[in-house]
Amino acid sequence: MGRYFIAGSWNDWRPEEMMLEDEAVGRFTIKASLPKGKQRFQILRNRDWRQLIYPETRYADCEDDVPVKGPDASGYDSYWSIEVMASRNVFFIDLELWPEAALAAREDERKARPAVSKMKVSWRSVGRQELSQQELFENARPSFFLVGSWDCWLRRTKMRFDGLRQSYVGRAPRALRGGDLFQILSNGDWNSILHPSVHEAGLENTAASRGAGTRAYPAWRMDKDEVVEEETSARRRASDRFEVVLNIRSTPWRVSWQKSSSDELDDSSDEDLDPELYGPPGADGL
């Protein structure tokens, strides 16, 4: 059956495990306090971004009765969408895995409308919880996430807001060897991609355009020769990282990058790679 995790706009797309509530019907659930507005999410099996569970259509509501797809890596740009009111912001989100016998029984019950999937995702509002002023402030601010070829475009790395530079700053999650491609996702959404006008753009092409829906959009290319000065050491330190800066005060927005050593920044400025994020891929079926 595996383990199931939810990743959404309210938790910076960091997978949180759903609890097995009813083993007989394969129901997993999680309780979450959500900020006001449209909140989007996907479900991962075994904490693996290559095993996404997602709706067949983008931004589906649980009332739409759309087929549930996965687990696979194809639906990276398809999400469920919850409209959250400030007065009813506490939700239970459920995933049901229907065995074949249960599917047959449901088909008999529905008669005119057979079950369309082995899985069902639903949610229900159960009350209200006050969010702190800091939570409200953070949720009101736009968010941006780095994605890149360094991990096959699987993981979002959140960019922090730098008040001094009035820019968003993110660090690649591992030491780069040059030639890595990257884009920026607005609010972590693959349907709102910031990208250059030409593919494999360097520091001479920093203007950001906005596209949607595919990883095939042009990407910036981060070559070490562009950003790393010659060093006396025979090899670079393994702790070196590259810092990407999104300047939203310019028109159009500008993207640049530079070398930044990990011991020059405090821990709050870095996004550490979660060693459990990629697996192991589930061997068990649904």
Automatic annotation (TrEMBL):
Top-level taxon: Eukaryota
Region named Disordered: 256-286
InterPro entries, sorted: Ig-like_fold
Residue ranges, compositional bias (Acidic residues): 263-275
Gene3D superfamilies: Immunoglobulins
Protein name from the UniProt record: ANK1 protein
UniProt source species: Symbiodinium necroappetens
